[in-house]
Structure formats: structure tokens, C-alpha cells
Design goal:
Rossmann fold, Ribonucleotide Reductase Protein R1, domain 1, two-stranded antiparallel ribbon, globular, binds guanosine-5'-triphosphate, binds magnesium ion, binds zinc ion
Amino acid sequence: MELIELGISQWFTDQASELCEPEQRIARVTAVDRGQCIIRNEDGEVPAKATNKFMNSTETAQDRPCVGDWVCVIYDDSNNAATIHTVLPRRSFLRRKSAGKSSSFQMIAANIDMIFIVQSCHKDFNVSRLERYLVMANEGHVEPLLILSKTDLVSAEQLEQLIAEIRVVGITTRIITLSNLTGEGLDQIKASIAFGKTYCLVGSSGVGKSTLINQLTGQNTLETGTVSTSGEGRHTTVRRQLIVLEQGGMIIDTPGMREVGVLVASEGTDDNFDDIHSFSTLCRFTNCSHTNEPGCAVLKAIQQGTLHQKHYKNYLKLKMESAFNNTSCTDKRKKGKKS
Ligand SMILES: Nc1nc2c(ncn2[C@@H]2O[C@H](COP(=O)(O)OP(=O)(O)OP(=O)(O)O)[C@@H](O)[C@H]2O)c(=O)[nH]1
Ligand SMILES: [Mg+2]
Ligand SMILES: [Zn+2]
């Protein structure tokens, strides 16, 4: 296996020549499970752990190795294990708010070219959640693709209705409809996967992420779950794992998320609401908050029906959450410095 098959580019090679010591080698993190990593390069996969020195040098959990990272490593004498000394800067990332009220982030994956956001047509479908994933993608500089799975469980009319619900709020992202049962949509997904590129699957538990990967590999590479009659998944996948596909390209499986704790910078919010943004340039006041100002073009567009009320509400909600979270980040930093 060449590094190029694992997605290396000149940019990472340049970073490595600057940040790795001469005796260190470059490898990609393919799995992380409670601090224990697996890394891969030309010589195959071995377990690896970050050195204490590196761990102590990190400020937050985000800075520690995560799946998809390029790292500088030293192999032990047996060549059966390695230590991680540096994590190279990330070109893109997916992260979410850590559980609980703190404003820290949890990395989902790094150096991702495209995120496959999977929602099941059955029970799991939720447009607001889709929008949250889109904001997450945008904030991490990752191109999104929507996958509506389990189409075998709904009628053609129902499916059309779901797609219409996505389009009506202004989401223009490409959608692939998929049934792992009948194979519908699988070819389109295969065609979207390119050599040397990295893809990450996200979505609720039980929507068929691991089943999709098994379809792509043609093997039972991953364990898949059974779904309870309520339609809720059971969190079959427990660790994040990067799989190299025979056809070229890599795909990362992640455990289903219960909630996409939105923690996004306002920068991330704006791009997914291009329509609102373009109306806002017509507002009378440049600092218009689009809530009650006279001459507000956004409010006018809603009145005239050009802008969907629900989409606008999501926009406000995300704006508020991101403003709140940004403040709490700064507050926390200040607090940390004082004590
Ligand atoms: N009817 C139907 N069932 C599917 C489809 N895809 C997956 N399933 C079933 O749904 C269940 C859950 O699939 P998984 O692939 O384990 O789901 P997951 O998204 O990986 O779930 P987590 O690992 O818990 O996040 C399994 O019983 C699959 O057989 C599909 O397209 N149609
Ligand atoms: Mg799974
Ligand atoms: Zn306005």
C-alpha cells in the first residue's frame, strides 16, 4: 500500500518535512478507541499510542490524534507497535460539541474530503437535524452529500415527499436515495468515491452506515445491528474506523449520534443559508438582525413566501446557539487564565 492510496498529498508531505524529526515516519490514523490508535502506512497497520510528552503539549481533546489524522511516528524495535509524536495540521475536520454543557469539542474525523450524511426514510427523518449536519460540514470545510437510506421501507410517493421537505427549506445539497436491501443507489454512491479521497459516514444509530460499508467492500467487514421494532438503532458501531476500499478511496464508519450538539462558528452558519444571506444584503440597515427592523428584506421575503419560515427559524436558532457557544468558549478561556 502506497501513502498516495491513503490520501497523502504534497501539502501533508510539506508539513511532515517541517514537523517530523528525521527518525520519525509518517502514517495515517485509521482507528481510535479510548486513546489507543491504529496507524497505517506502506508497511501495514500497527497499534500506536501518543507519547505522554505529546499528550501534555495538547490544550484540548481536539488536538489529540483522531481517525483520519496524519501523524509522525516511531516504530518500536519489533515493528509491531509505534508511538505518535506529532499530529500534522488538519486540512478539514468534523467535530461536534462534547456531551454535557461544556463548550468543548469532540473530534469525529480529520482530513475528510466528503461527508455522507445518512438519514433513514423510516422514522429517523428530520430536516432540522440535516441542517445541523450541514452546518457541521461547512464549518469543517467538508463537502456534504445526503443519503436517504432504507427507501425499501417507504413508497415512491413518500420518498418524493421527503425530498420535497428537504428542498423546500432551501437545501440544495445532492441527495442519493439508497436501499441496502435492494441495492438501489449503491452504484451512485460508488461513483461518488474517488481514488485517494476520504469519506466519512455520519447519522443516527441504525440508519445503515455499516451495512453500506459492507456493501462497498463486498464483505462483512463491519458488524451491523438489528433494529428494535420502534425503529431506533442500538449503537452497534462503537469506534471510528477508516476502511480502505479496493476500488480506491477510503471511508470512515462512525457510531450513530444521538444528537448533533451544534457547536458551530457563525462563519459555518452563513454558508448553508445562502438564500437568507443574499436577501440580507437588501436590508435597509447593514447591521440588521432580521428580527424586527423596518426595511428588512429577509422578513419581507418570508411575508411574500419567497423564504420558508421554518428555514428562517432554523437559521435564527443556529445563530443564537453559535453566538452563545462562542461566548462561553471565550469566558472559559478567560476563567482558565485567571485561576
Ligand atoms: N430495510 C432496510 N434495512 C436496512 C437497510 N440498511 C441497513 N438496514 C438494517 O438496519 C440495521 C442497522 O444497520 P447498521 O448498518 O448496523 O446501522 P448503523 O448506521 O451502522 O448503526 P450504528 O452502528 O448503531 O450507528 C441492520 O439490521 C441492517 O440490516 C436498508 O436499506 N433497508
Ligand atoms: Mg454501524
Ligand atoms: Zn434584515
